[in-house]
Design a protein that fits this description.
This protein is mostly helical. It contains 3 helices and no strands. The longest helix has 17 residues.
């Protein structure tokens, strides 16, 4: 490709500005703080993946609540 070759591919257009100052003259620090807050609010909407709940039988194993033999032992195995 030489300098006179036409560009190949889609032409990108600039995105609309995230914020626009309509009144006043904020300092660069104020604009940076506002931009950080707006961007953090957008990230807060992304829900964290829920972890699956621990099954009842796993909790019984962790607590070493194994059913013991005896009359109506099956009732204790239900939790």
């Amino acid at each position: 490709m030489g300098p006179s070759d036409p560009l190949v591919g889609p032409v990108e257009t600039p995105d609309a500005p995230l914020l626009a100052v309509v009144k006043g003259e904020p300092t660069p620090e104020e604009l940076a703080a506002l931009t950080a807050v707006v961007l953090s609010l957008g990230q807060a909407q992304q829900a964290a993946p829920e972890t699956p709940g621990v099954r009842h039988w796993v909790r019984r194993q962790q607590l070493r609540l194994a059913p013991r033999p005896g009359p109506e032992a099956w009732r204790r195995s239900l939790g």
